[in-house]
Amino acid sequence: MKKRILIVGGTGFIGYHLAKKCLKKNFLVTSLSSRKPKKEKYLKKVKYIKCDISNKNNLKRNIKGNYDYVINCGGYVNHNEKVRTFNSHYKGCKNLADFFNKKNIISFIQIGSSVEYGSIKSPQSENKNCSIKKLKSTYGRAKFLATKYLLGLFEKEKFPVTILRLYLVYGPNQDTNRLISSVINSCLLKKKFPCSNGNQYRDFLYVDDLIKAIISCFGNSNSMGKIINVGQGKPKKVKNIIELINGKIGTGVPEYGKIKFRKDEIKILYPDIKLAKKILKWKSKISLKKGIDLTIKNYKSQLNIN
Q1: Total-model pTM
Q2: Do domains 4-168+204-230 and 172-202+234-268+285-302 have the same CATH topology?
Q3: Rounded mean pLDDT of 236-259?
Q4: Are 305 and 252 in contact (CB under 8 A)?
Q5: Rg (alpha carbons) of the chain, rounded to whole number
Q6: Quick check: helix, strand or coil at residue 75?
Q7: Which segments of 248-289 are extended strands (E)?
Q8: Class of 172-202+234-268+285-302 per CATH?
Q9: Residues near 41 by Cβ (< 8 Å), separated by ≥ 6?
Q10: SS (H, E, C) 158-219
Q11: Region of 261 on the Ramachandran plot (φ > 0 left; ψ -120 to 50 alpha; else beta)
Q12: Which of 94, 213, 132, 121 is nearest to 165 (CA)?
């Protein structure tokens, strides 16, 4: 029988790429999201359900049938709206876990965030615990509490959860509110664009590599009840990435120093990925240069640029 997968946040960047890959694997794919898919992210064979996961009754009314795998990459993206951010990333996750706890699913995969480590020094490893009091953002606290709740459910009732703690994921069809997508878009449109001085180091992962990591968790009993970092494990200087993109495209003017660092901003941020290699038998395969080339090609297509 075909495997059934529910992708919470299936109309978003990660959800779209995961749905596309699962369709190729002949899964029956359902997307649960607070919004309809954009035209360029609509997939014919996906069943789309509109639902607010932070509303428990709404969730119960909309989820029908059985699923083998549930992936939670949902949550409100505008983190300035603190109440909606907290409700979607914590309460929504809790509602999903409570709903599926007695449903005999094979795997529940939570998309977590490196923000949950707070200011812990890189390379950040899964055995380092951050105090919630040290987390500055509502988003970070919501993700942290969601992780804590899920691990508690695993300890008490063996809920089959794996938490993937992501760093900076990029690739085709990403909204232009992230560093790489924003720089590519600005350069293709021949704009001047503000940026920081670019002296910070960050870890970037191409989306196809992330999807392979997610799929490696399906039915993986060794990953259950664990937090696993997912990233390249090789930090890159942000200024070098901006210059790489700018050089490849040949247009656009970065205005360095226009965006100031936050007081609490971490200068060097990247993960220890030993656990992903050991448990998931996974590591990234797509180099930054290749990933950026593929992403530029996608944005050129969207903008009808040869």
Answers
A1: 0.96
A2: no
A3: 98
A4: no
A5: 19
A6: coil
A7: 253-256
A8: alpha beta
A9: 11, 16, 173
A10: CCCEEEEEECEEECCCCCCCCHHHHHHHHHHCCCEEEECCCCCEECEEEHHHHHHHHHHCCC
A11: beta
A12: 213
pLDDT at 147 over 80: yes
What distances in angstroms separate CA 299 from CA 19, 82, 286, one per listed residue?
20, 31, 18
Torsion sign across C-alpha atoms 33, 76, 144, 213: positive
DSSP letter assigned to residue 267 = S
Q: What six digits make up the tokens of 286?
A: 């797509």
Looking at residue 22, what DSSP letter applies? Answer: H
How does DSSP classify residue 110? E
Residues 6+ apart with CB under 8 A from 209: 284, 285, 286
Q: What is the pLDDT of residue 80?
A: 84
The helix/strand/coil state of 31 is: strand
Q: What is the pLDDT of residue 233?
A: 96
How far is Cα 236 from Cα 270, in angstroms, rounded to an integer? Answer: 9
- Beta strands of 19-175 (E only): which ranges? 28-33, 47-50, 69-72, 107-113, 161-166, 168-170
CATH superfamily of 4-168+204-230: NAD(P)-binding Rossmann-like Domain (3.40.50.720)
CA-to-CA distance for 94 and 89, rounded, in angstroms?
A: 9
Q: Determine contact, residues 159/270, Cβ cutoff 8 Å.
A: no
Give the domain ranges of the chain.
4-168+204-230, 172-202+234-268+285-302
| Amino acid letter, residue 208 | D
Question: What integer pLDDT is reported at residue 264 of this predicted model?
Answer: 75
pLDDT higher than 80, residue 263: no
Q: Kindly state the average pLDDT of the residues 93-117.
A: 97
144: Cβ contacts below 8 Å, ≥ 6 apart:
116, 130, 132, 135
Q: Give the phi and the psi of residue 84 in degrees, each rounded to 5.
A: -65, -35
